[in-house]
């Protein structure tokens, strides 16, 4: 192992997660809009229950092994997403490779904060009832995104996220997740119970849980692989950074199971809210990204006490968005603390300012004054989404698998696996995960089109 850690890298990890706090923070990072917003509409577009099974299989084969790899690199390297690689190998070509992950997390937050801001606006509008004053919810969404309120709500996301990250690991990130994740689960269960007792809910439950394999295509497999990656916050260094704050007595294999299990539970409950609701009110489950912001408000408007349930649903989305946003922001903040020896407050402040300079054009292009400014037929928002989700996440994951599979020879010590499980893990890192991730990448950028 390279012994070139800076003094700050050594001191940084004194502010650590407790074992429980680490699990909750990691679950919080994974339980974001990927589970609550993206997973339901992708499931709807791919036939329901069969895609859910395929998604779970992808989590098992690719998601969990890569998650364990990220956590192991973070704890073994005891630095940020960039310095952890440098601390674990003498091969100079890897010393600056982790910067790619830092940039990925930075870019991901720029467009993620836009959608997170939408959830805050819809929460407020649902509580006061204004959301349901116009029955044309597509028009309502267009009017909102074309105005200036998204800029305000995005700024609120920045302020809240920055304030929590600036308070540190145990006093900020862990404390926040310990409070909001149980609250998130309670809201989920309440909304799920309400949805399951709607008239016609059985058809939605059947669609979500009963497999129809005739609806699956090879492209469904690639989407399931991509969703498994996105839902666990892999490939942008968030889990690696969190891993640096984990005690040595924490079993990373058990943590991987707990984090994946938590993510699956939240995704399942989200599906058991959305699909019974949409089927009960005649809304197509294939509505796409507009399912949450356009289709579901129509269902809440028709439901007894729908204003209240709608408000709780968007509170749920807002909490999920914030827990993931915190993980994204911690990646560049930790890097700046190590690279330039800044205090946490200074690093957080400067990261948020620079990130907002990129995020402002992003939000203004998602329906606002810059929406007509196109590059290659895409808005700035579309490009940020496309580059991070389709290119940087898969490339980041590929880099992690190659590093663990072929470069880091002492990974067995950090992973804490028995010899049999370790051989299976390394085999996956060397031969299975890289191939599947390359397929995700080729499919995402349009170079691989399968039926």
Question: What this model shows, in words?
Answer:
The structure is a single chain. The protein is an all-alpha fold and 451 residues long. The protein has a single domain (7-444), classed as Orthogonal Bundle (Hydantoin permease). It has 19 helices and no strands. The longest helix has 35 residues, at 306-340. Residues 1-12 have low confidence and may be disordered.
Main features:
single chain, 451 residues, mainly alpha, globular, disordered N terminus
State the end-to-end CA separation: 46 Å
Q: What is the name of the CATH architecture?
A: Orthogonal Bundle
What would you report as the Rg, rounded to the nearest angstrom? 21 Å
Q: Please state the average pLDDT score.
A: 89
Indicate the structural class: mainly alpha
Task: Note the beta-strand portion.
Answer: under 5%
What is the helix content? over 70%
Top-tier CATH class: Mainly Alpha
Count of domains:
1
Principal-axis shape equals globular
Report the strand count: 0
Mind describing the biggest β-sheet?
A: none
